[in-house]
Specification:
The chain has about 575 residues and is of the alpha+beta class. The longest helix has 21 residues. It is elongated and about 145 Å long. It is built from 13 helices and 36 strands. The protein folds into 3 domains: about 240 residues, no CATH class; about 120 residues, no CATH class; about 60 residues, SH3 Domains (SH3 type barrels), CATH 2.30.30.40. It has an 8-stranded mixed β-sheet. The protein has a 5-stranded antiparallel β-sheet with strand order 9-8-7-4-11, covered by helices on one side. The chain has a 5-stranded antiparallel β-sheet with strand order 35-34-33-30-36, with no helix packed on it.
């Protein structure tokens, strides 16, 4: 894409021009893919930024516009990008440019830190890649084009944890790499391969503090899982609750999961950090949730009515749980995603007794003197004394409705938790396990396998992905060649006055060639600006006072910020 405004105005303030535009073509040719090798680039939509109308970027590396090595930015440049009426605008150095529907800040090779920082990003970390900015009406869509290995270094510390054992991190790196490449293969027609949220994989950019995660990525560089010649989806989960799940059951993923099976996972179950939601109560229900006893009373009401007892729930008192039995799985007998827990219980109730008409005074006298009972008319029924029944009653609690939501046992948004019943002498406990979908590698399981049992990455992967083969692939490096350095600019110097007592010669040192230093009438940022000094200009400087220095040239005299001055020979 050509940008006429960029060529005119932006060159003056923000972009350095190096000779002929033929340099860009040469650089792109040098970065071409080798025959038979696969691209290592991923397109990550930074969806966690929301739908920003504006983004402020600080370049901490070597960048050009749209891969053109003839138009590039210096390290440290700050750029503001905004979307207006379907166009991307860049603001830099006081100049605003319409870049059309989209523009790419392309990264080139450079020593040291090489990426960009984005104001408002969740962790403020470095984003090591090129940044595509597209306008969607009044919103920007930022898509980071990043090497798969650099991408993983911004995934592992946040999807797992840098403190996990190295072998567990290595297994996570392989799973995350494979997942990313499988998504890229599926989304080729889109303008992105992944999003940076849990909808795909959490990605927060690079933080050099996470050294274990980076080591795990490097130790497994290129290793991916394949099935039938294709990248596997390689799902993974926080925990599986003690049993693996199939994506077709839990995620409604269409096919392609023949390399997985349902099997028990004692390692996940053993990890004390695997989340568990527990509801415990005494068998006599003395401390059970009121909602639970209400359900049991309501469930027994109709049967009690047929037996001659009151059907009012206030006249029914569940007072003993005999058993709790999970039953009816969601997806066949192999899995333990039970939909119901059958409660078998006993109760006390109040039998219904007749209410008779009252005798008159004369009728009571007659009964006394004759000894003959006068038959009374039944005018109603009323509950009698509490009676403990010998009969057993049953009620089916729904796991994914009543237990999970109404009794507050929810672990995740997916209805796939596993339910377990624990019985002790006078207590029952219901437990829900599985935080996440339960498919593929369990992160908590891998933690125990590596940390407690010393299992290697290969063993962990074989346990969770039994049908996959793992191979190391070589990917092309997408980063473009370094940009040639410009010769140092020779600033135009005006004659300087002779330094007086307490003065010296100093040089203005700024971060970019196009930046300027304000000369103010007083040592304050509120004072009027008298002039602007370019980078490399010499001045006569007095002694620094509170961060300000009085300077003078042949044409101006005032105050500048001392941090931008270097005393010659000092």
């Amino acid at each position: 894409m050509k940008h006429p405004l960029l060529k005119g105005a932006l060159l003056a303030l923000c972009i350095m021009l190096i000779g002929s535009l033929g340099l860009a073509e040469a650089g792109q040719a040098a970065a071409g893919q080798e025959a038979g090798r696969e691209s290592g680039a991923l397109r990550v939509w930074l969806k966690s930024l929301g739908e920003p109308s504006e983004l402020t970027l600080r370049l901490a590396g070597s960048y050009s516009i749209d891969g053109n090595a003839g138009l590039f930015f210096e390290r440290g440049t700050e750029i503001t990008a905004s979307a207006r009426n379907g166009a991307v605008w860049l603001r830099c150095g006081g100049l605003q440019m319409n870049m059309g529907a989209g523009v790419t800040l392309t990264r080139h090779q450079a020593d040291g830190e090489n990426g960009l920082y984005i104001d408002g990003s969740a962790r403020g970390n470095l984003y090591c890649g090129s940044l595509e900015l597209n306008a969607e009406g009044a919103a920007l869509q930022p898509v980071l084009v990043i090497d798969v290995e650099e991408y993983l270094k911004g995934v592992l510390p946040f999807e797992m944890n840098d403190a996990f054992p190295l072998e567990a991190l290595k297994a996570q790196a392989v799973a995350a790499r494979t997942y990313a490449l499988s998504r890229r293969a599926e989304r080729g027609a889109k303008n992105y391969d992944l999003v940076d949220t849990p909808a795909d994989q959490v990605f927060f950019g690079f933080d050099p503090a996470w050294q274990n995660a980076a080591a795990a990525v490097e130790a497994t560089r290129g290793v991916c899982g394949r099935f039938n010649g294709r990248y596997a989806a390689c799902y993974y989960t926080a925990t599986n609750g003690g049993q693996t799940a199939l994506p077709g059951d839990v995620l409604s993923a269409p096919g392609g999961d023949a390399y997985l099976n349902i099997h028990d996972d004692p390692y996940d179950l053993e990890n004390p950090l695997s989340p568990v939601s527990t509801l415990a109560f005494r068998k006599n229900l003395s401390d059970a949730p009121a909602q639970l006893t209400q359900w049991l009373a309501e469930a027994a009401a109709e049967r009690l009515g047929a037996m001659g007892y009151s059907e009012e729930t206030g006249d029914i008192r569940p007072d003993r749980v005999i058993s709790l039995t999970p039953h009816t799985t969601k997806f066949g007998p192999e899995n333990r995603m039970y939909q119901y827990v059958r409660v078998t219980y006993a109760l006390s109730a109040r039998p219904m007794e007749p209410v008779y008409t009252e005798l008159t005074f004369e009728e009571r006298i007659r009964e006394i003197f004759t000894g003959v009972k006068i038959e009374r008319e039944v005018v109603g029924m009323k509950p009698g004394a509490w009676t403990q029944l010998d009969e057993e009653f049953t009620y089916d609690l729904t796991v994914y409705g009543q237990l999970k939501n109404e009794l507050g046992m929810k672990l995740s948004g997916l209805d796939c938790e596993l339910v377990t019943v624990i019985e002790e002498e006078d207590v029952f406990a219901l437990q829900l396990r599985r935080y996440g979908h339960g498919v593929g590698l369990s992160q908590r399981g891998a933690q125990i396998m590596a940390g407690q049992y010393g299992m290697r990455c290969e063993e962990i992967l074989a346990f969770y992905y039994p049908g996959l083969t793992f191979e190391a692939a070589a990917f092309d490096d997408e980063i473009l060649p370094p940009i040639p350095e410009l010769p140092a600019a020779t600033p135009v110097r005006e004659p300087l006055p002779e330094p007086g007592e307490g003065e010296s010669i100093a040089t203005v040192r700024l971060s970019t060639a196009w930046s300027t230093l304000n000369v103010r009438s007083a040592p304050s940022t509120d004072a009027p600006i008298l002039a602007e000094l370019k980078n490399g200009v010499q001045v006569v400087a007095a002694k620094d006072e509170n961060g300000w220095t009085r300077v003078r040239t042949g044409s101006v005299e005032g105050y500048v910020s001392s941090q931008y001055l270097t005393v010659d020979g000092g």
